[in-house]
């Protein structure tokens, strides 16, 4: 497996391959983001779109949209959305992703997800919870 960053001027060519997966990913997060915003962030260079390529089978295993920022303790690669056939692909490839992220100079990998992630990513610690109040009532 190989990870490839998609440059901002290449986003249009690659986006159709993963856009349906990102739609589901955004729904899983409770729509804390949406595919259109992810697309715009990647096109503007405010986020990086990466593809995990299965070189032997010549297919995309998964893709993710990553934002980078700094906290006092070091750099963060924040996964805004992950899209693929199944979460197990990303979970089983996490070591490869972590090596790629470290190569960018970050110290932390952060991502949001359902409570089930605690069982898939045993080294992860919970930083916060998301809450929603329905204001229409």
In words, what does this structure look like?
By secondary structure, the protein is an alpha+beta fold. 35% of the residues lie in helices and 29% in strands. It is built from five helices and five strands, in the order E-H-H-E-E-E-H-H-E-H. The protein has helices at residues 11-28, 35-44, 87-92, 94-103, 117-120, and strands spanning 2-6, 48-54, 59-71, 74-84, 108-111. A five-stranded mixed beta sheet has the order 1-2-3-4-5, with helices on both faces. A hairpin with a 4-residue loop joins strand 2 and strand 3. Helix 1 (11-28) runs antiparallel to helix 2. The longest helix has 18 residues, at 11-28. The protein is globular, with a radius of gyration of 15 Å.
Q: Give the helices and strands as they follow along the chain.
A: EHHEEEHHEH
Range of helix content: 25-40%
Describe the biggest sheet? 5 strands, mixed
Overall spatial form: globular
Radius of gyration, in angstroms, nearest whole number: 15 Å
Compute the number of helices.
5
The rounded distance between the terminal residues' Cα atoms is 49 Å
The overall strand count is 5
Assembly type: single chain
Structural class: alpha+beta
Calculate the mean pLDDT score and round it.
87
Strand order of the largest sheet: 1-2-3-4-5
Instruction: Tell me what portion of residues adopts beta-strand conformation.
Output: 25-35%
Low-pLDDT stretches: none
Outline of the structure:
The protein is an alpha+beta fold and 137 residues long.
Summary keywords:
137 residues; single chain; alpha+beta; 5 strands
């Amino acid at each position: 497996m190989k990870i490839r960053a998609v440059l901002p001027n290449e986003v249009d060519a690659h986006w159709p391959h993963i856009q349906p997966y990102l739609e589901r990913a955004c729904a899983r997060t409770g729509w804390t983001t949406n595919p259109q915003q992810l697309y715009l962030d990647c096109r503007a260079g405010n986020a990086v779109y990466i593809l995990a390529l299965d070189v032997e089978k010549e297919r995309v295993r998964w893709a993710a949209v990553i934002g980078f920022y700094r906290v006092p303790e070091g750099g963060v690669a924040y996964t805004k959305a992950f899209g693929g056939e199944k979460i197990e692909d990303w979970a089983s490839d996490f070591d490869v992703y972590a090596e790629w992220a470290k190569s960018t100079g970050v110290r932390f990998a952060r991502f949001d997800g359902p409570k089930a992630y605690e069982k898939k990513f045993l080294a992860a610690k919970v930083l916060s919870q998301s809450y929603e109040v329905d204001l229409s009532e």
